[in-house]
């Protein structure tokens, strides 16, 4: 990467801190390859903690300029709210973290679109909230009123929190990891929401269709699977098994928000899969990704697609 390009990096950081000073946000997304010379660096603003991630080794000059610029940023009066600054070296085993300022707790409370979530900012994998899904959660909140919602691969229930905030009558969250669902329950409590309207099923989806169907039919189904989960899910092999079940779970006018976050498949993967395995569902639109996650190849980024009966 090019140290002479870092002025763009710091310009975007300052711009983002002004636009969303109290909300969780990706401030710089070099991995979208829209910033030449900065393709392997990102920066997130997480609960007043500045988290920089490097995905490839950099030169001593680059690291020195990056460190100098971050320390200078923290000293400016406009950015006194910064509690800590860290650089995670994601290309090294264990992703060691270098602290330039302060310390980071294991768990912090963040705000997105006015809703609260817990995040693990020291984790290099399971932070608790995928920031590129912000507009997806906003869409669910805006369209959930009076609906029975099924949230497949629920993780920490971000969609569920958004749906209840939007007036959903019930949300059924399904995920194999009980620890993730426990965090989801904590997220609902953090927003003082009625957990009596929320179900948490720590089940293997493929072995639980009967139980899932009994809690339906659903007005809205959200399917946001991992690209790969060892021993339980492989996107290109298993997503079709999800799609063919959808018609039996939906109400007459039900909708499906089908998500894919693998650069190895395009948006046609779900559109064509739905046409083959759930032909009664029609493709409506692909939701926008947040502008901070711009990518030179839109098909390599997150794909959130809406279908309707």
From TrEMBL:
Gene3D superfamilies (alphabetical): Vaccinia Virus protein VP39
Taken from the record, one Pfam family name reads Methyltrans_SAM
Which keywords fit this entry according to its UniProt record?
Methyltransferase, rRNA processing, S-adenosyl-L-methionine, Transferase
The S-adenosylmethionine-dependent methyltransferase domain is annotated at: 25-307
Q: Which GO terms describe its biological process?
A: methylation; rRNA processing
Q: Does the keyword Transferase apply?
A: yes
Annotated GO MF terms: methyltransferase activity
Q: Which InterPro entries match?
A: SAM-dep_methyl-trfase, SAM-dependent_MTases_sf
Instruction: Name the source's superkingdom.
Output: Bacteria
**Protein known as:** Methyltransferase
User: What lineage is on file?
Assistant: Bacteria, Pseudomonadati, Pseudomonadota, Gammaproteobacteria, Vibrionales
């Amino acid at each position: 990467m090019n140290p002479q390009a870092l002025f763009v990096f710091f310009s975007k950081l300052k711009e983002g801190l002004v636009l969303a000073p109290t909300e969780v946000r990706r401030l710089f997304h070099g991995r979208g390859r829209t910033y030449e010379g900065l393709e392997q660096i990102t920066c997130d603003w997480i609960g007043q903690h500045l988290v920089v991630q490097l995905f490839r080794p950099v030169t001593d000059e680059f690291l020195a300029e990056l460190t100098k610029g971050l320390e200078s940023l923290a000293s400016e009066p406009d950015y006194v709210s910064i509690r800590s600054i860290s650089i995670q070296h994601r290309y090294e085993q264990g992703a060691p973290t270098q602290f330039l300022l302060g310390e980071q707790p294991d768990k912090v409370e963040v705000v997105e679109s006015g809703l609260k979530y817990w995040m693990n900012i020291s984790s290099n994998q399971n932070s608790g909230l995928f920031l590129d899904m912000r507009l997806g959660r906003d869409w669910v909140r805006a369209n959930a009123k009076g609906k029975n919602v099924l949230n497949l691969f629920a993780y920490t229930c971000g969609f569920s929190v958004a749906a209840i905030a939007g007036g959903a009558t019930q949300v059924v969250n399904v995920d194999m990891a009980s620890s993730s669902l426990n965090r989801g329950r904590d997220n609902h409590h953090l927003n003082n929401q009625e957990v009596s309207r929320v179900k948490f099923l720590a089940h293997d989806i493929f072995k639980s269709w009967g139980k899932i169907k009994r809690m339906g039919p659903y007005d809205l189904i959200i399917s946001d699977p991992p690209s790969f989960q060892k021993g339980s899910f492989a996107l290109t092999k298993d997503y079709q098994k999800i799609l063919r079940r959808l018609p039996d779970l939906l109400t007459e006018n039900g909708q499906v928000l089908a998500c894919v976050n693998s650069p190895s498949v395009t948006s046609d993967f779900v559109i064509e899969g739905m046409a083959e395995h759930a032909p009664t569902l029609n493709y409506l639109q692909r939701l926008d990704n947040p502008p901070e996650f711009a990518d030179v190849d839109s098909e390599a980024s997150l794909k959130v697609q809406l279908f309707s009966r």
